[in-house]
Amino acid sequence: MTVLEIARLQFATTTIIHFLFVLLTLGLVTLLVVLQTTWAITKKPMYERQTRFWGRLYVINYFLGIATGVVLELQFGTSWSGLSHYLGNVFGAPLAMETIIAFFLESTFLGLWIFGWGRLNRWVHTALIWLVALTAYASVFWVMVANSFLQHPVGYDKGADGVIRLTDIGALLSNKSLVMALPHVVFAAISVGGFVMAGISAWHFIRRTQEVEFFRKSLRLGVVTAAIGGFFVVGFGYAQYGFVADLQPTKFGDDAAKAAAVADFTARFGPGDYNLPAYASTALGFMILIGNLLPMVMFAIPLFFRDWIIRWRFPLYLLLLAIPLPFLAASLGWLFREGGRQPFAAYGLLPLQDAVTPGGSAGAMLTAYAVFTTVLVALAVTDWVLIARAANRGPVDPAPDALTPLA
């Protein structure tokens, strides 16, 4: 394998694993806002217990996800210094905003929320989880701003040295590649949160839990959230076709548009394979197949009548087995989005061979890939094990200050 091939494989591995954490973090924090706000309004202990239980899973995923994000950031300096050099003045700005929001604001609000149980007024404490959620959404926004620039470069000027500089922040923030992709990603995360909550609740009913009312409410909220998220993620997914065909003709354009784009790229960058890679096309097909199945969870909603969904049990097994599906669909979608702009780091602007760090050896890059992947897999396995243990244990009514990953 060449240095470029290893660097691409490393970025794909790191991004997909980190993305799994992001999906669950954003999905669960959205549900926590619903649960804790309901508790603040009604003062019913049930909703406080639910907030504590699902909050514990969220905290575990958040802190391990932050660690995977650090590994992801390291790549831009180690493997993709060309991208940082030529595009860093534009691409780096939204990433810097995301870092400030995620590592400072969001983490600070989350810390206050964790250690504020029993110490803060319930409305102040509820406001903190809202702030955690808002900063989480803001973090995703800035990441998508940066990624959308790579998909469709706008708002820049290229100097004589070949370095790209930001000239129009408005164009960057209103990028057409961002308009539909952002809600698509957000609702994908909300769907993930719903499926995870529904699946874990179904597992407890399969085990004949004594916490019937607790998990009945969680199951209902999870199914409804998964249905809403699934409906909108499919809608915004299909709505992107027209935008993508215009912005990236080699990905979705008709034959004439593809031929014109290939001719243009060949004239500017030399001969090359500018057509959609086979793996990206395959990923799109499977993503559509799985994505179209996700909204079918709405057919479980009528089964809540007289607890049919619990008594029949078969739907519970389906909900449990469905937990990986939105994760898989989102990963396939990310493969298509990223792979579809190849062979460019920034579509039509910076070829991959100019973006990768020059002078590296395949051996050194392979070693870095092995180290990074080992760390990421260890973090992912640790996350899944801790979440599975906490979820399996169920609500245990911890002390007010004990909502930590180790509690």
TrEMBL record:
Entry similarity comment: Belongs to the cytochrome ubiquinol oxidase subunit 1 family.
Subcellular location: Cell membrane
Regions crossing the membrane: 16-41, 53-72, 92-115, 127-150, 185-206, 218-239, 278-304, 316-336, 366-387
InterPro entries the UniProt entry points to: Cyt-d_ubiquinol_oxidase_su_1
Top-level taxon in the UniProt lineage: Bacteria
Membrane topology (UniProt): Multi-pass membrane protein
Protein name per its UniProtKB record: Cytochrome ubiquinol oxidase subunit I
Keywords linked to the UniProt accession: Cell membrane, Electron transport, Heme, Iron, Membrane, Metal-binding, Transmembrane, Transmembrane helix, Transport
Main location: membrane
Pfam families reported in the protein's UniProt record: Cyt_bd_oxida_I
Organism field: Hamadaea flava
